[in-house]
Amino acid sequence: MRQIGLFVGLSLACAPSPAGRPKQDATLPDSATRDAAVDRVVTPTPDVPVDPPSVPPDASPDMQLPGDPRPADTTAPDMAAPDAPPDLPPDMPPKQALFVVGDPTLAPTDMLIQTRLRAKGLVVMVADDDVATTANAVGNALVFISSSINSTVVQGKFADVAVPVVIEQAGSYDDMQMTGPVAGTDLGTMMHTQIVIADPAHPLAAGFAAGALTVYNATHIVPWGAPPPSAAAIRVATVVGNPTRAAIFAYPSGAMMVGKVAPAKRVGFFFARHLTMTILNADGVKLLDAAIDWALAP
To answer: DSSP E strands: which ranges in the chain?
Structure first.
């Protein structure tokens, strides 16, 4: 795959993708894979939406933002080199974020996330899910796993890293041991324009009041996870109509997750594949910023 960024000496040897274990789709029949609605398809078969007969017509994963053409620079075929460092005092080295995506050419939402990470002063290394490894997390201040990844490829590569992780892919919540593995019970997706702020006092709520909050301008996919009662998850926002299904949830470092203690902060976040800038609104972006800020905070 092509990727974007200025080459600064980073290289990564390509390795064959790990064999993915079969997964049941959270909202699809048993014969379908769980990630079909939210992962990048890695075979020629078309995407399968979650609830409606088709995803919104303007939700192409390859759509570019208006007036924001993709950079023409390319480096090696599998991982983008980090951005140029932001302007910082000489005694303050820039922090780096690993951004794991389904395609380094970046879909619209991934372009937004990259922009927001840069706005926090982070040097962003974009990594193709096919070749990203656990070792790539070393030395980073944050790992951000996009909803565009294929969870059967990424699996638990970053489950044990002692680095904060923000993850949008509901199909990977169980691999990260943030929820159980049962599709439709422990993790899944639904269609809506709103989420419900359940813990307005938490920084991840971005200052929004308790209750329903519109985050999409049109009905779209809302990934969710349902941590069990035995887990010390913080449910900051839930899906509409089901307070046990969290659209934004988190584990502080050292908190009990599902069968393991969190090695560092973990955040489950509701952005979904096919999300475009015409669908996402400003309040959704504020929640994204809050997720990055909380994950980076000491």
So the answer is: 95-101, 122-128, 142-145, 165-167, 187-192, 194-197, 211-214, 220-225, 234-239, 242-251, 266-268
